Structures are given as structure tokens and as C-alpha cells.
């Protein structure tokens, strides 16, 4: 007994000492691991103080670091800082409304993964996903033999080291969404414990034996290889691949697979429960294969080539009663009625978006249905009465972009579980009353835009929901800001453009939300001065405000510092308040078409984030501020149609970024030399100013230039011969980089207008001043009209075969029209009028099949007007003022010219036969005749031989004729 108690005491003492020793070590981490982490930190580029906690002696309490309590060694490193959630489609639809950060803060790590990470030999869990790490995965990472979870997804990594094959304990590997390139996947065969593998959105196009490599991972249960460019499966090699009894989730979307992929799918797993084959090239032959996949729970076949009637596919599913998710959207099914899905009694999510479904909207009994997407079809008729017993579980309903008409049934308000409801872009009418919304307590996203619906809600209504997004454009909200919005404290998106709202902005607008990311009240009748409280509105990190096309007036006040895009065009703002420069964080600023007058504030050096500035169509005056030259990140500046004068300040600091310049229709002075450092310009429009000097040859070095409009200035000299070197105008395939600024509606469900950094441009086109909206880089034009240019039209200009408009009118150009002008086969508008051009109109004009406008008037052109192609469509106004021209459509008819004498002689030979021609012809005849025939007449033997030869040739020739 004593011995036993003594033994127990010893054990207890030992445990106490051990635990005490362990607790002492828990207070500090291993020194080697701490030093390794500090080296790792040096390789990262990080802002927002992400790793500010990485100091002090105990690395176990640093952010993202976990240690073993007994040894103090680092066992887990989790440095994923971004928690943004994207809801892309029904593949990712959650049962409840997710928490979404539409514009996440730049809380990510950059730089590279330093090899010091391999000194953390006790790591079992490593997560560096959702950052911006570059370079290669360190090869030494294969030495982390205890690693079970490795997550490096959503970075910019380049290379998969073969050393990953040494991670024999690895169970979870996520390398998806990188720039990784691999030539083989043989290293996978060594990962015998791997259960989860994600290689999606990497470049695996060279891995020809990928099916064989994947089959060597014996216990793999989840596989994601979507959007990898995988080669097609070779059916002959499939018989040598063993089937897995574990693979349950398989994603192969976005690989351009044809239907042969199904033979591998059926071979690799008999128990697959989730199968994603969307965004491939599967055709009708695959559908019969699903009668053998009886374990299927979720099936995604969207964006393929399924073209039979939709109803023909449904009987083939042997798992119909167990199927929970079915996605068939974006397939070219034959037009047919909505099938009866009652057989799919377990169905929770059904997407038939853009499947050519027609007819009335009829539903079977689907008691478990949570998500239904029937958008982008041709459903017509009225909305049915929604029986609550049939749709008690419905969370997500999208019927947008159809032809549904009539009134909104009250029963839709009984779907108390709805958090997403979209009926936009239909033909619905009538009122939205309290009965429609009284029970929608979970509603988060409400889209009724582009209908003829009127909100008829009690102003004192306290809605049962807290919306995250409201889309109601083109509906009628009333004559003032809806008071019920005052209760919406979680709004992030408010799209109420063109809703007939009048009056002024309410003072309470700043209280509706603490995270307002997007507000669009454009195309209404709002008036008055913006309230000062507007600058106090709490907004999201990068928000968009669109107040354009209203009657707002007064001076411009500062806006909240987090406003990212600010659209205030087409109002009656009159000037800038002294505090305006506090709006210095804005990136897109549109103040065009207002009543702004006076000089601009000279504080633009504060606007270091500014990329787009549009001040066009105002009454601004004075000099262009010198501080414009400090806008180092500026992409687009529009100051056209104002009263600016003086010389343009130096924009040298902007040369790396500036793409679009429109200073047209002002009184600016200077020379074109000012712009030659802007090597990335796409649009240069200086028309209607007082620019002097010549066109420098260095303008030909701006290879990206697509629109050059320097018309109506005082420019002299000649058009440079090198103008044909501008590749953007000569390359038919050249397209500008299209710079997008976040969608005006941050949610991915909607496209409410994407802001480009140049949306419109004013050009003289086909003889008229036209405003081109949504300019996307397809316009290519040169306009140097109404200057004092002289010399000939450069021959090289005909190599700019991408040009759509060429205007050289109103100058002093001489010489001929280039004979090969027909090479400009994309020309739609050509104006060479009011010059001193002479000679004939080239016949190659008949090749200009797209030419809709031609003006050659008031030159010295002569000869017959060619016929053929578009030349037959122009009237006399295209040729008036050329006294030497003749032929249709002019009344002056051309004299008859025989075919032998009607040949066209190029340039200086393109005249009537001259005296020198007749003289040379006479001399040639005289010499030739007396050199040959004279000899024959004088010397009879030679004459006899000649005539004897001539007769023999004549006889032989006649005998040889048929």
C-alpha cells in the first residue's frame, strides 16, 4: 500500500513538474522560429500595419501565429487577411444572405515567400491565401514534413516545385487561382494521404497525362481543376485508370472539354456527389450518361452546347429524387415551355437562366426549393399566385429580363424567407403596396427596376426588412425622397435613378447607413443646394455617387473622403466652394455640363488619386492651373467647351499615365510640341483653339494614338510623311486597353452601367458635329481641317487602314490625291474639300465600300468621275467647285474618248497627249521606218529574202489555224 501510494506520488510529482515546465515554455516561442518569422516578414510587402504585432520576444502571441504549448515551436501560420465574399452565381449561393464586403480594404500581403519559412520545421498548418504574393513557391517547402494543410490560393505565384511530393502527411492542398505553370503532375503520386486538391485557374495545358496522375492519389475526395486549360481526354487510355471509391466532389468547369470527358468521369468515380462540368463544350450526347450517376446531389451543366428541348433531358436522371442542385443555365435549348420539375422532390436550387424558356410561368410542387433563377428568358403572361405551401423555403428568386406583365401578386409578400428578389426588366405595372412587403422580414436585395411599378407605401411605414441593396430605377417612388428609406440602416447600394423624385436632398440621408457604397439618384428632378451634412455621410471605403442629370445648384462642397467616383454632370452647379479641395481622395470626377464659371482652384496637386477629370461644357475661364502638371496618375482630362486661355502648362509628370486629352473649343495657345512627351496618348483633341506652328514629326512616335483632332487652329507646314507609322491607326487588330472603374452597382447580379475612363467624344463625322457615347476604342480618326497646312497629301497616309474618318479640308494642300487611297477600306467619312488638289479622282475609290460620306468639293480636280462601289451614291455636293470634272452626277458630260486613248497616265503623265509626245512618236517612226524598210528598198537581195520569209510565215500561220 505504502509502495503504491509512493508510486502515485512520484507520478503526480512528475506530471506537475512536466506541466509546469510546459507552461513556462508556453509563455515564449522557440528562438529559431522567431528569427525565421522575422526574416519572412522582411520578404513581405504589407500595409495597414498588418504585421504590426510581430515584435517582442514571444512570437506565439503574434497575429496569425500559433505554437505548441509544450515546445514553443510554431505549428500554425495563418496570414489570410481578406474576408471578402463574392456571390457569383448559384454555384456559390448560400442559404442565408452572406456578409459581403464589395470593396475590401487593401489588407493583403505582397512581396515574396522567403525561404526562411522552411525553418519552421514543426508547421502543420500554413495559410497564405488571398494575398498578392509573387514569384515561386520555395523548393525547400518540401522539407516541412509535418505539414497537413497548405493553402496558397489567390496569389500570383508562378511555379509548382516537385519538392511538394515530399509532403507525405499532406491532407489539404489549395494552390488555386494563381499563375502557376506545370508540365506534369507526377508529384501527386507521392501524396498518399491527400484528401483535398485545388489547382483551379492555373496553367495545366501541357499536362497531357493528367487523368493518370490524378488516379494515383488513392484517397482523394475533392478535386478542383476548373479553368486550367486541360487537354482533352483520350478514351483509349481510360481503361488503364483505376476507379476511385472516394472522389465525391469533382469540378472540371471551364476547360473546353467535349463529351468524351464523360467516359473519364464515369471511370474515375462511381460515388461522385457534386459534379461541375459548366463552361465546356458538352453536347446532347452526354445526358444519357447521368442515368448511371445515381449518387449525384449537385450538378452544374451551365454554358455548354445542350440544344435539345429542355424537357427531353429530365427523364434521364436516375438521381432525380435526390438531386438538390441543378444548374442548366446559358445553354441553347430549343424554345419550349417550362418543364414540370415535380419529380425532383429534393431540389433546393434550380437555375435555368438564359435557356430560351418561353410561355407562362407555371410551377410544380417543390417544397424544398430555396433558390430559383429563371432570368433572361422569354417567359410571358402575368405572375402566378405564389402558393406559400409550395415555396415556403424560397430564399432566392430571380425572374428578371423576361416579358412578364400585369400586376405584382400580393402573395409574393408571403414568401417570408426571401432575402433576394429580382423582377427587373419586365413589363410589370401597378402599385407596390404594404401588402407586398409586410412579411418580407429577411429581404436584403430588392430589385424591381425597369418596370412601370409605383411605390405606394405609407410615409410612416417602418419596413420589416433591412435592405442591403435597393434597385428601383425607372419606377415611380413619389415626389420626394421616400421617407421609409430613413429606416434602412444597412444600405450599401441605393439605385433610384429616373424615379420622378423632386425636391431637395433630405438632411437625414446621411443617417441611413454607415456603409453606403453606391448611390445613384441620377435623371430625377432634385433641386436646390446640396446640404452641408452630405459631407458627413458615412460611406464605404471606395464608394460611387451619381447625382447627374438633376437641377442641383450652388457651389460645390467637399464630399466624404471615401468617395471613389463622383458623377455630378448635367446640373446647375455654379462654382467651387473654398473647401472643395478637401475632396482630394476622389478618383473619377465628372462635373461636365454645369454652370461652373470663373477660374479653377489651383490645388490639384492634392488630388493624387485622380484618374479621370471631366470639366467639359461649362463657362470656366482663366488659365489652366499649373497644378494640373502634378496629376501623376491622371488618365483622362476633358476641359473642352470652356473659355480657358493662355498656354497649356507642362504635363511632363503625367506622360506615363495620360491617355485621353480633350482641351478643344477654348482659346488656348502654344504649339503641338507640348504634347510630344505624352507617349501613351490615345486621344488628342485640341480643335478650336489658337495652336500655332507645324506638326512635328515626333508625333509619329505616339504609336497608341487613335484619334487626332487639331482642326480649326493656326497650324502651318506640311503633314509629316511618317504619319503612316502610327500603329494604332494602321493595325486593324489594335485595341486600346479598356480601363474599368468598379461597376456602378457593386453587386455582381447587376450591370447598371460600367464607367470607362472615356465614355464619349465629339468629332466632325460625315460633315456634322456628332457626340459619340460609349467610345470603346473602335473609333480611329484624323482631323486637321481648317488650318494653314500646305504641301501634298503624304502617300504613307494610305497605310492607316484602320482609319474610319479622315478630314483634311480647309487647308492649302496641293498635288494629287494618292492613287492607292482605296487601301483605306474601313473609311466611313472622307473630306478633302476646300484645298488646291488637282488631277483625276483615283479609281481605287471604288474599293471604299464603307464610305458613307465623301466631300471633294472646291478643288482643281479634273477628268471623269469614276463609277462603281459607293461612288454611285453621291450627289453633286461631293464634287461641286471642280470645273474640270465631268460625268455623273454632274451635268457636265465628258467627251467621248476611245478605249485605246482613254488609258490613265499616273501623276504628271495624267494629262492630254502633249506636244513632246507627238514629236517623239514622229521621230521614232521616221528612224524605225528608214532603218528597216529603207534598207530593203535600196538593197534588192535583202529585200527579196525578207519578203520570201514574210510569205512563208504567213502561209504557215494560216495552216496552223483550226
Automatic annotation (TrEMBL):
The record's listing under InterPro entries reads: Leu-rich_rpt, Leu-rich_rpt_typical-subtyp, LRR_dom_sf, LRR_N_plant-typ, LRR_R13L4/SHOC2-like, RLP23-like
Q: Which UniProt keywords apply?
A: Cell membrane, Glycoprotein, Leucine-rich repeat, Membrane, Phosphoprotein, Receptor, Repeat, Signal, Transmembrane, Transmembrane helix
In its UniProt entry, what is this protein called? Uncharacterized protein
Q: Tell me, what's a Pfam family for it?
A: LRR_1
Annotated Disease resistance R13L4/SHOC-2-like LRR domain residues:
114-311
Q: Which family does it belong to?
A: Belongs to the RLP family.
Q: Which residues form the signal peptide?
A: 1-26
PANTHER family named in the record: LRR RECEPTOR-LIKE KINASE, LRR RECEPTOR-LIKE SERINE_THREONINE-PROTEIN KINASE FLS2
Q: Where is the Leucine-rich repeat-containing N-terminal plant-type domain?
A: 31-68
Q: Where in the cell is it found?
A: Cell membrane
Organism of origin is Vigna angularis var. angularis
As for membrane topology, the entry says:
Single-pass type I membrane protein
Which Gene Ontology terms of cellular component type are present? Answer: plasma membrane
Amino acid at each position: 500500500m505504502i509502495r503504491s501510494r509512493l508510486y502515485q506520488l512520484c507520478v503526480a510529482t512528475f506530471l506537475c513538474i512536466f506541466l509546469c515546465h510546459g507552461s513556462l515554455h508556453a509563455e515564449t516561442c522557440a528562438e529559431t522560429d522567431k528569427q525565421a518569422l522575422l526574416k519572412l516578414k522582411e520578404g513581405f510587402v504589407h500595409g495597414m500595419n498588418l504585421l504590426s504585432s510581430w515584435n517582442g520576444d514571444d512570437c506565439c502571441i503574434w497575429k496569425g501565429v500559433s505554437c505548441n504549448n509544450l515546445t514553443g515551436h510554431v505549428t500554425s501560420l495563418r496570414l489570410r487577411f481578406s474576408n471578402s465574399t463574392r456571390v457569383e452565381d448559384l454555384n456559390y449561393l448560400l442559404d442565408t444572405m452572406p456578409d459581403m464586403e464589395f470593396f475590401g480594404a487593401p489588407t493583403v500581403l505582397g512581396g515574396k515567400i522567403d525561404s526562411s519559412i522552411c525553418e519552421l520545421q514543426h508547421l502543420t498548418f500554413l495559410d497564405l491565401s488571398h494575398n498578392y504574393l509573387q514569384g515561386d513557391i520555395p523548393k525547400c517547402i518540401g522539407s516541412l514534413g509535418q505539414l497537413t494543410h497548405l493553402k496558397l490560393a489567390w496569389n500570383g505565384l508562378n511555379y509548382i516545385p516537385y519538392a511538394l511530393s515530399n509532403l507525405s502527411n499532406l491532407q489539404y492542398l489549395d494552390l488555386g487561382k494563381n499563375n502557376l505553370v506545370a508540365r506534369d503532375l507526377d508529384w501527386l503520386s507521392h501524396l498518399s494521404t491527400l484528401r483535398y486538391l485545388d489547382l483551379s485557374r492555373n496553367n495545366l495545358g501541357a499536362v497531357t497525362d493528367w487523368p493518370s496522375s490524378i488516379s494515383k492519389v488513392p484517397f482523394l475526395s475533392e478535386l478542383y481543376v476548373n479553368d486550367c486549360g486541360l487537354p482533352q481526354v483520350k478514351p483509349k487510355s481510360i481503361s488503364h485508370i483505376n476507379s476511385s471509391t472516394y472522389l465525391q466532389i469533382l469540378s472540371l468547369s471551364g476547360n473546353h472539354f467535349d463529351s468524351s470527358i464523360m467516359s473519364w468521369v464515369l471511370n474515375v468515380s462511381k460515388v461522385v456527389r457534386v459534379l461541375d462540368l459548366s463552361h465546356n463544350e458538352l453536347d446532347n450526347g452526354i445526358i444519357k450518361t447521368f442515368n448511371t450517376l445515381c449518387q449525384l446531389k449537385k450538378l452544374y451543366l451551365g454554358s455548354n452546347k445542350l440544344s435539345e428541348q429542355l424537357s427531353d433531358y429530365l427523364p434521364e436522371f436516375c438521381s432525380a429524387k435526390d438531386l438538390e442542385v441543378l444548374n442548366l443555365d446559358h445553354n441553347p435549348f430549343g424554345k419550349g415551355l417550362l418543364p414540370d420539375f415535380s419529380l425532383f422532390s429534393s431540389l433546393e436550387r434550380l437555375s435555368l437562366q438564359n435557356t430560351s424558356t418561353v410561355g407562362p410561368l407555371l410551377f410544380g410542387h417543390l417544397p424544398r426549393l430555396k433558390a430559383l433563377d429563371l432570368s433572361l428568358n422569354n417567359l410571358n403572361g402575368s405572375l402566378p399566385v405564389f402558393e406559400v405551401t409550395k415555396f415556403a423555403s424560397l430564399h432566392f428568386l430571380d425572374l428578371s429580363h423576361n416579358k412578364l406583365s400585369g400586376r405584382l401578386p400580393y402573395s409574393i409578400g408571403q414568401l417570408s424567407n426571401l432575402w433576394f428578389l429580382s423582377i427587373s426588366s419586365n413589363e410589370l405595372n401597378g402599385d407596390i403596396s404594404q401588402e407586398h412587403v409586410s412579411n418580407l422580414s429577411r429581404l436584403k436585395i430588392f430589385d424591381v427596376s425597369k418596370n412601370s411599378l409605383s411605390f405606394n407605401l405609407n410615409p410612416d411605414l417602418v419596413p420589416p426588412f433591412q435592405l442591403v441593396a435597393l434597385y428601383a430605377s425607372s419606377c415611380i417612388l413619389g415626389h420626394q425622397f421616400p421617407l421609409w428609406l430613413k429606416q434602412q440602416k444597412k444600405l450599401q447600394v441605393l439605385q433610384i435613378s429616373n424615379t420622378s423624385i423632386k425636391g431637395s436632398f433630405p438632411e437625414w440621408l446621411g443617417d441611413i447607413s454607415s456603409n453606403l457604397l453606391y448611390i445613384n439618384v441620377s435623371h430625377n428632378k432634385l433641386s436646390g443646394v446640396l446640404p452641408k451634412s452630405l459631407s458627413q455621410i458615412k460611406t464605404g471605403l471606395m464608394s460611387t455617387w451619381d447625382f447627374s442629370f438633376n437641377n442641383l445648384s450652388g457651389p460645390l462642397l467637399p464630399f466624404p473622403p471615401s468617395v471613389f467616383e463622383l458623377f455630378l454632370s448635367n446640373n446647375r452647379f455654379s462654382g467651387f466652394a473654398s473647401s472643395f479641395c478637401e475632396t482630394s481622395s476622389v478618383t473619377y470626377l465628372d462635373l461636365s455640363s454645369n454652370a461652373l464659371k470663373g477660374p479653377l482652384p489651383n490645388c490639384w496637386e492634392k488630388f493624387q488619386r485622380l484618374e479621370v477629370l471631366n470639366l467639359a461644357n461649362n463657362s470656366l475661364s482663366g488659365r489652366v492651373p499649373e497644378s494640373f502638371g502634378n496629376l501623376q496618375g491622371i488618365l483622362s482630362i476633358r476641359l473642352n467647351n470652356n473659355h480657358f486661355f493662355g498656354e497649356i502648362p507642362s504635363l511632363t509628370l503625367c506622360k506615363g499615365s495620360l491617355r485621353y486629352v480633350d482641351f478643344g473649343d477654348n482659346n488656348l495657345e502654344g504649339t503641338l510640341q507640348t504634347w510630344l512627351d505624352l507617349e501613351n496618348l490615345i486621344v488628342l483633341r485640341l480643335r478650336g483653339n489658337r495652336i500655332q506652328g507645324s506638326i512635328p514629326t515626333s508625333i509619329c512616335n505616339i504609336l497608341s494614338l487613335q484619334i487626332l483632332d487639331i482642326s480649326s487652329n493656326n497650324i502651318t507646314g506640311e503633314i509629316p510623311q511618317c504619319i503612316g507609322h502610327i500603329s494604332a491607326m494602321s493595325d486593324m487588330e489594335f485595341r486600346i486597353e479598356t480601363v474599368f472603374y468598379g461597376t456602378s452597382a457593386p453587386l455582381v447580379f447587376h450591370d447598371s452601367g460600367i464607367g470607362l475612363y472615356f465614355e464619349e467624344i465629339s468629332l466632325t463625322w460625315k460633315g456634322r458635329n456628332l457626340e459619340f457615347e460609349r467610345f470603346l476604342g473602335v473609333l480611329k480618326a484624323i482631323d486637321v481641317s481648317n488650318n494653314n497646312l500646305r504641301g501634298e497629301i503624304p502617300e504613307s497616309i494610305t497605310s492607316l487602314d484602320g482609319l474610319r474618318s479622315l478630314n483634311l479640308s480647309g487647308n492649302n494642300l496641293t498635288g494629287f490625291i494618292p492613287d492607292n487611297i482605296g487601301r483605306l477600306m474601313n473609311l466611313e467619312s472622307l473630306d478633302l474639300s476646300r484645298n488646291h488638289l488637282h488631277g483625276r479622282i483615283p479609281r481605287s475609290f471604288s474599293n471604299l465600300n464603307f464610305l458613307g460620306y465623301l466631300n471633294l468639293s472646291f478643288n482643281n480636280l479634273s477628268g471623269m468621275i469614276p463609277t462603281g462601289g459607293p461612288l454611285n451614291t453621291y450627289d453633286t455636293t461631293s464634287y461641286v467647285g471642280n470645273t474640270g470634272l465631268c460625268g455623273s452626277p454632274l451635268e457636265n458630260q465628258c467627251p467621248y474618248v476611245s478605249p485605246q486613248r482613254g488609258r490613265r497616265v499616273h501623276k504628271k503623265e495624267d494629262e492630254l497627249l502633249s506636244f513632246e509626245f507627238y514629236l517623239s512618236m514622229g521621230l521614232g517612226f521616221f528612224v524605225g521606218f528608214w532603218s528597216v524598210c529603207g534598207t530593203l528598198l535600196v538593197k534588192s537581195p535583202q529585200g527579196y529574202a525578207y519578203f520570201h520569209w514574210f510569205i512563208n510565215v504567213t502561209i504557215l500561220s494560216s495552216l496552223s489555224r483550226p
